[in-house]
Amino acid sequence: MNITTIIKGFAFEAYIDGKTVDRLPEIEVRDIAFDSRKVVDGTVFVAQRGEHVDGHNYIGQCIEQGAKVIICEELPSDMPADVLFIKVNNTNEALGLAASNFYGNPSSKLRLIGITGTNGKTTTVTLLHRLFRNMGHHTGLLSTIVNRIDEEEIPATHTTPDAIALNSLMSEMVKRGCDYCFMEVSSHAIVQKRIAGLHFHGAIFSNITHDHLDYHKTMANYIAAKKALFDSLPSTSFALTNIDDKNGMVMVQNCKASIHTYSLATVADFRSKVIESTIHGQQIELNGTEFWTPLPGRFNAYNITAIAATSILCGNDKIDTLRHISELHAAPGRFQYLHGNGITAIVDYAHTPDALKNVIATINEVRTKAQNLIVVVGCGGDRDPLKRPVMAHIAAEGCDHLVLTSDNPRTEDPEAILDAMEKGLSEEEKSKTVRISNRRQAIKTATMMAHEGDIILVAGKGHETYQEINGVRNHFDDTEELNKILTKK
């Protein structure tokens, strides 16, 4: 592919031998990279400024390895005569545009639908993928848990992959005949321009609550990051927003797309009402039509409404959509049930104050007075410390017994994290709380506390099969740990 194709849509200045040029030379491009270790002859190197590493420091190394084109924000002092330098304002954005061009703009050949919000992203995209597959479509999935091309699994490493990986995956989806792709869009990915160059057929807003303030610093910045997805939508797309969230309509201010709303409490284009709720599911009425879903809880009623609305906006029949939704089950680690020795255990990814509050509220709506609720929860290290006391208070307020434990402590002292969590507890709440930093022992202790009929909620890690301690990922699976204990006679 010629370099002129790669940089289509850019605003740039071109330099050869230190001088600006108006006409680009014919240069064959074989690959694009932002990691200097992957640069070989024929690779375009994009010098990104990261949180810890600045790609501009590796330009000389990449030229030695064979790069003939460098895309950068700042020109180096030494510019060899046989290397083309493309100077741009933002290399993160340039990488997205270049990757999209290099792979033939695959997102424009799919119906790409993105979902953003604090909670519900993984459940919504996973269920949309399953729903559309069951309704006869070929679909791709880009989620926290896993990426999929139809039923083939491709492990995920971030909520949103880097721009090169994104476009490579979508290019493969196009080759295999996918007509839809459902994608989680994180606030980090939006701010870091990882979605630059992508063409969204639609976007969904779920909700926004306290999270990621270690990165965004303020709620205003966090909200603005989410809103940027909707600001970028073209008039040919649709925007679906939850108007029960106080920022629901803020998201679609200045949005050029066709705007649609969903709700459980307000008049909306797609309005649902929970008719009956149990721990095993709920009866919902959507715009006058009743259906059953095995996904319990008010938070899942919102997810299901968004899924149904998206399907209908994509042209699928309403009754057919609701019939297939009735057959969908939860994503792994999202309100996942385990049973044994007369005890019910629930594993859930809830790792934000709002998500934890919703899961506990769902359990409390349906448990009997005779059933105790025991909650096991921690907070991640090297992440937003402000939510730690809030999480502990929410857990203690809604349960009979609380076990504070480690999540992914990363490089922090687990006991220091528990100290911060404990600051959110009143003296009364402390009296029903134990702290055990060893997560395996904490889960075991919770099962020892439980009597027949009781419910244990293990929150925070959900689908994760590891625990990160001092930079090392050790195998750890909440579901496995519970199964070992609950299946023992």
Q: Would you give an account of this structure?
A:
α9 (248-251) links the parallel β13 and β14 (258-263). The model has no long low-confidence stretch (mean pLDDT 93). This protein is an alpha/beta fold. Helix content is 32%, strand content 24%. The strands form four sheets. The chain has an eleven-stranded mixed sheet, sandwiched between helices.
Count helical runs.
Answer: 17
| Average pLDDT metric | 93
What fraction, in percent, of the residue positions are helical?
A: 25-40%
| CATH architectural arrangement of the largest domain | 3-Layer(aba) Sandwich
List the domain count as a whole number: 3
Low-confidence stretches: none
CATH homology superfamily name of the largest domain: Mur-like, catalytic domain
Largest sheet: 11 strands, mixed
Give a count of the beta strands, DSSP E runs of length 2 or more.
25
Top-tier CATH class of the largest domain: Alpha Beta
| Termini separation | 64 Å
Shape: globular
Spatial strand arrangement across the major sheet:
10-9-8-11-7-12-13-14-15-16-17
CATH fold category name of the largest domain:
UDP-N-acetylmuramoyl-L-alanine:D-glutamate ligase
Estimated radius of gyration: 24 Å
- The fraction of residues assigned to DSSP E strands is 15-25%
Helix and strand composition category: alpha/beta
List the topology elements.
Blueprint: H1 3-6, E1 13-16, E2 19-21, E3 31-33, E4 43-46, H2 59-64, E5 69-72, E6 84-87, H3 91-102, E7 111-116, H4 121-134, E8 139-142, E9 146-149, E10 152-155, H5 163-175, E11 180-184, H6 187-191, E12 202-205, H7 213-216, H8 219-231, E13 238-242, H9 248-251, E14 258-263, E15 270-278, E16 281-286, E17 289-293, H10 298-313, H11 318-325, E18 336-340, E19 343-348, H12 353-366, E20 373-377, H13 387-398, E21 401-404, H14 414-422, H15 427-430, E22 433-435, H16 439-449, E23 455-459, E24 466-469, E25 472-475, H17 478-486
Parallel strand pairs: 3-4, 4-5, 5-6, 7-11, 7-12, 8-11, 12-13, 13-14, 14-15, 19-23, 20-21, 20-23, 21-22
Antiparallel strand pairs: 1-2, 1-6, 8-9, 9-10, 15-16, 16-17, 18-19, 24-25
Helix pairs in contact: 3-5, 4-10, 10-11, 12-13, 13-14, 16-17
